Q: What sequence folds into this?
């Protein structure tokens, strides 16, 4: 029995609740006092989720998550600073590209997509290059689903007297990176990942004292978080047209997040989804790219089976017909595909997806599920 609307088992856009979608059925004026109160409430709740009450502020920015990451790098890295980028996937590589375009000094420490950066390698890099001022790490590299050791890296960066930036896009709200235990100047995420709002804006949790020192750093007007923040504090409004419907949906999504028990509840549901998925796929004969210890409960990469009858496009279409949308792989280390665990998905939805996968394999006549030789 296919769900009415396909479920998105992807890295985003993600499935949202009906009530979150319904919150968008109204047009708001940007100067409307109700809208202004809603915007302030959303920003305050983001700071609470980040564990940064009193020390941090939330600065939203229009666009997808990438816009927030680019705004974070451009605002927090001084023009004469130098950024160490920890790369183990497409999102780390994308940041390197941003820095090339911005013409800011940077250096990458790259590990394979199935390998997190080692904190001692970061320490060595920092002691070997005193010109590095900042480090940026991706919390969950959604390219593979690998969990990077953000807390240990934060300790190494703090000990070396440098500043940390985090792309926590696919982790924020489900995997802890509390400002009390992880020292960061800025952490970027978006409306449509673990917080299950509609896509349309990103936000950066900023240590207020660090942000105050960022005036004039940005390379771009629309991506200047200092200017966005200073204006929002002064006028309580966005500088340019706000994504009003998406903010209203996000306000509702945050109500549902709180009702689920916040980070503990949301994290537990995603871990259950992930466990059901991984156990079920392994029972069918699939192999995960990552060992369980490195797997974040966000998205799982599976090796493409060696059976020549397994054609991803056909497999994808069969699952889509049954109501489940999965995602191709984006790895250089292995031929693969991905199935996400986040968004408004339950354990029952994961079991439904597994049943659809079993059907599709039968229909394709796939029997040899072990990975293709590398
Ligand atoms: C989703 C994601 C982003 C942002 O991607 P957009 O497509 O711009 O929303 C950035 N980093 C990571 C790790 C992500 O998972």
A:
């Amino acid at each position: 029995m296919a769900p009415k609307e396909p479920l998105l088992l992807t890295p985003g856009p993600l499935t949202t609740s009906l009530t979150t979608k319904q919150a968008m059925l109204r047009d708001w004026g940007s100067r409307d006092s109700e809208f202004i109160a809603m915007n302030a409430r959303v920003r305050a709740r983001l700071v609470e989720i980040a564990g940064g009450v009193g020390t941090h502020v939330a600065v939203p920015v229009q666009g997808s998550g990438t816009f927030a990451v680019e705004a974070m790098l451009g605002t927090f890295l001084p023009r004469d600073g130098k950024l160490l980028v920890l790369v183990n996937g497409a999102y780390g590589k994308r940041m390197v590209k941003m820095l090339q375009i911005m013409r800011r000094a940077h250096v990458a420490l790259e590990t394979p997509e199935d390998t997190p950066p080692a904190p001692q390698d970061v320490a060595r890099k920092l002691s070997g290059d005193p010109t590095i001022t900042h480090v940026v790490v991706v919390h969950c590299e959604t390219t593979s689903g690998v969990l990077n050791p953000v807390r240990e890296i934060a300790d190494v960066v703090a000990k070396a007297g440098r500043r940390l930036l985090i792309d926590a896009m696919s982790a924020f709200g489900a995997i802890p990176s509390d400002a009390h235990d992880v020292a960061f100047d800025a952490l970027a995420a978006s409306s449509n990942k673990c917080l299950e709002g509609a896509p349309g804006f990103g936000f950066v949790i900023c240590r207020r004292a660090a942000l105050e020192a960022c005036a004039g750093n940005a390379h771009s007007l629309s991506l200047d978080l200092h200017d966005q923040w200073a204006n929002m504090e002064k006028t309580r409004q966005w500088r340019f047209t706000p994504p009003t419907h998406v903010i209203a949906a996000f306000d509702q999504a945050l109500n549902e997040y709180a009702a689920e028990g916040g980070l503990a509840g949301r994290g537990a549901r995603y871990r259950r989804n992930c466990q059901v998925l991984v156990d079920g796929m392994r029972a069918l004969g699939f192999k995960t790219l990552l060992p369980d210890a490195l797997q974040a409960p966000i998205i799982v990469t599976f090796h493409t089976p060696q059976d020549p009858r397994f054609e991803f496009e056909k497999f994808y279409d069969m699952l889509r017909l049954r109501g489940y949308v999965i995602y191709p792989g984006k790895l250089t280390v292995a031929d693969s595909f991905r199935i996400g665990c986040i968004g408004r998905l339950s354990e029952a939805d994961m079991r439904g997806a597994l049943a659809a996968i079993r059907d599709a394999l039968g229909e394709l006549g796939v029997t040899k599920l072990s990975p293709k030789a590398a």
